[in-house]
């Protein structure tokens, strides 16, 4: 490190991997405040305290950085869903436990969308040309993605005898579509004016509907 004119330390280099992570963290904060549109390479480098050219050592363009941040935001969704499940009280009845874990997937997903709308929008931002879509999919603490956590919860319903095996295939798509649709309506659509208590009730009713439907 060297010192700037005002005497403050200036970081000139990063250990291997640190700069990439620092840029992602800086861009995550930008996304938290303004969604995917706020992610700009120059702004991220400024937040990380490096020159704009330094970013190109790790990200070919803005799209590459945006995709990395999208994956990091998706991992945060997974962690929120896992935390919702971990907070469940012990259930002696396997059927009740399976049902609670399934519902926690949905409530955790909706909670993240309402508490972190900028990151939620960023998690589902897909490049128009899909240029970076082959990158590794981000996962939460257990190594599972939100989609895998949902699938695991649905499998638990089958094991508990609450969901018929012949109705299991494709159930992820139906459940996710319904919950994601509500999330978007709550943060960007006509339901964004609901009180928190009303939004919670809307989420509960949608999950009730999914349970009955599958």
TrEMBL record:
GO terms for molecular function: DNA-binding transcription factor activity; transcription cis-regulatory region binding. Residues 40-59 bind DNA. It comes from the Bacteria. The keyword Transcription regulation applies. Residues 17-77 form the HTH tetR-type domain. Keywords: DNA-binding, Transcription, Transcription regulation. It holds the Pfam family TetR_C_33. Gene3D superfamilies: Tetracycline Repressor, domain 2. The keyword Iron-sulfur does not apply. This is TetR/AcrR family transcriptional regulator.
């Amino acid at each position: 490190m060297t010192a700037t004119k005002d005497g403050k330390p200036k970081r000139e280099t990063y250990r291997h991997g640190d700069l990439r992570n620092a840029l992602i963290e800086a861009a995550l904060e930008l996304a938290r405040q303004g969604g995917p549109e706020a992610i700009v390479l120059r702004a991220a480098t400024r937040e990380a305290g490096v020159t704009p050219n330094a970013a190109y050592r790790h990200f070919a363009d803005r799209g590459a950085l945006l995709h990395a941040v999208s994956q990091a935001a998706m991992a945060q969704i997974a962690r929120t869903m896992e935390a919702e499940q971990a907070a469940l009280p012990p259930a002696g009845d396997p059927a009740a436990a399976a049902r609670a874990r399934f519902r926690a997937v949905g409530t955790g997903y909706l909670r993240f969308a309402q508490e972190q709308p900028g990151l939620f929008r960023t998690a589902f931002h897909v490049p128009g040309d899909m240029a970076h879509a082959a990158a590794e999919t981000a996962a939460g603490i257990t190594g599972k993605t939100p989609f895998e956590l949902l699938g695991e919860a649905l499998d638990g319903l089958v094991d508990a005898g609450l969901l018929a095996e012949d109705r299991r295939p494709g159930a992820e798509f139906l459940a996710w579509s319904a919950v994601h649709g509500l999330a978007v309506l709550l943060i960007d659509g006509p339901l964004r004016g609901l009180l928190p208590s009303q939004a919670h009730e809307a989420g509960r009713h949608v999950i009730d509907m999914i349970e009955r439907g599958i």
